[in-house]
Design brief:
With 488 residues, the protein is of the alpha+beta class. Helix content is 21%, strand content 39%. It contains 8 helices and 23 strands.
Length: 488
Amino acid sequence: MSPSRRARAIARAGAVAVLTALVGALLPAGAAHAEDRTVQGGRLDWGIKSSFQSYVTGPIAQGSSTLRGGAATVGGSQFRFHSAKGSYDPDGGAFNAGFSGGVHFLGHKKGGSYELDLTISRPTVKISGGSGTLYADMVSKEKGTGKVTSNAQVPLASLGMSGIDMKGGSGPIALNNLPATLTSQGAEAFAGYYAAGTELDRVSLSTDLTAKSGSGKPAKKPAQKPSESEKSEKSEKSGKKTKAGRIEDAAVDWGVRRTFREYVTGSIAKGEWKMSAGAQDGGALFRFPQGEGTYDKKKQTLDADFAGAVRFTGEHGLDLALSKVAVEVKDGKGTLFANVDSKASKGDKGVTLKRASLVTFAAKELKPEDGLVSLAEVPSKLTADGAKAFGGMYKAGSAMDPLSLAVALDADAKLPALPDLGSSASPTPQAKKAGPNAEPKTENAADSIGIGVGVVVLLAAAVTFAVVRKKRAAAGASGAPGAPGSDS
C-alpha cells in the first residue's frame, strides 16, 4: 500500500473511532433504559360472566353473590377489585398487577349446603410479549361430584391485547374492555360450568405507578397533610402511655347495604352519595374514623363515637343522611347507632331519629393483638329502628353489609388501610387503545440523539477536511496535484 493510501486509511479509521466514541458519549443514559416502576394503587373492574351472575341469582339456582375483602360493585354487573400491587417495565412493556378482594357465589341449596359454591379472589393481570393472562385464587365445588378444590393463582382467562402497545408508560396505566377467554385450567377450576374457550366478561383496569428508586413522584395525588392541631394532638398522644380503658384511635367500616348502593347509583334513583365531616369512601364501604371512647378488656365492653357522615340523594325523593355514628359492645353483641335524617317527599313524611340503633352484629371476642382490637367483616342485621330509617325499604332482621371495627389501644398501633382505588377510580376507565396513557417523564432521547449526531457529523467532516487538506498540501509540494493512483 502506498504511503498516501496508508495515510487515508488511517484517517478514515480515526474518523470512525471518533464518530463511535462521540455517539456513545452523547447518547443520554435515560434513552438506553427507562427505570422500572412499581405498581401501587388501582382497581380492576370485571363481571366475570354476566350470564353466570344471572343464573346464580335466578329462579333455577336461587342463590346469591357476596363480596369479600373490600371488593365492591360498579355499574350493573361488574365487581371492583382494589389496591393493586406489582411491577412494570417501560422498556419491554412487561406488566404485573395483583388486586385484593373477592366474590363468593352460592346456589342450588339442598339442606344446609349448596351444590354451587364458587369463590374467585385476588385477580392478577400479567402482560408480557404482547399477550396477557388474568390469574385468580379459586375455591370451587365441582358440578355433579361435589368435590371441593382450592387453587392459588389459576390462569383463569386469556386477555386480548391486539393493537395495544405497553411500552413507554409512566402512569397511570389504564386498559379498558380487554376481551377475556376462559382457559383450560380456568374451565377446570370453574367447576365445569363452562368449557375452555368460552368468552367471559371484558376486563378494565387502572393502576398508579411510582419509581422504584423513590426518585419519581407517584402518579396519584399526595395525601392531604394534617393540620397543625392534628399534628399537635398526635404528638401529645404519642408521648403518653396507654391508659386503662382508653381508646387512642378507632374506625368502623360499613357499606350500609350493597343493593342499596346499587339502587342509589342505578337507573332508577340515578343518584349519588357524598361523604363529609371526615368520613371516607372505600368503594364497597364507608369509613367513619377518629373514634373516641372506652374499652374494658375484662368486661369485654366497648363504647365509641366516630366522626363522619354520608348522604344519599337521588330521584324519586331519595335523600337520606347518616351521621354521628357510634358503636356499643356488651355481652357479646354489638350495635351500630347513628343520627338519621330522611327528607320528606311525596307520600313520605320523612324520618328524623337521634342515636337510632341501625344494625346489630356478633362481637363475642374483643381481644387485643399488638395494641389493636378488631372485628373483620362480621355479618350485620337491620333493627326495627333501622327499618324506619330506610322508610320500610328493608324489614327488621334483613341482612345488611358486613361491618369491620378496629380499635387502637396503643398510640403506635395502626388501623387497617382503606382499599386503594388509585388516582383514576372512575366507574368506567377512560383508557387509550395504545395502552399506557402517558409518555415517559425522562429526558427527550430523540432530541438528544439528534443534537449528538449533528455534532458528530460536523466533527467527522472536520476530520475528513483536515486529511484531504494535508494530502493536497503534500501533493502540491511535489508539483503533481491529482497524481495517478490517488482517490481525490
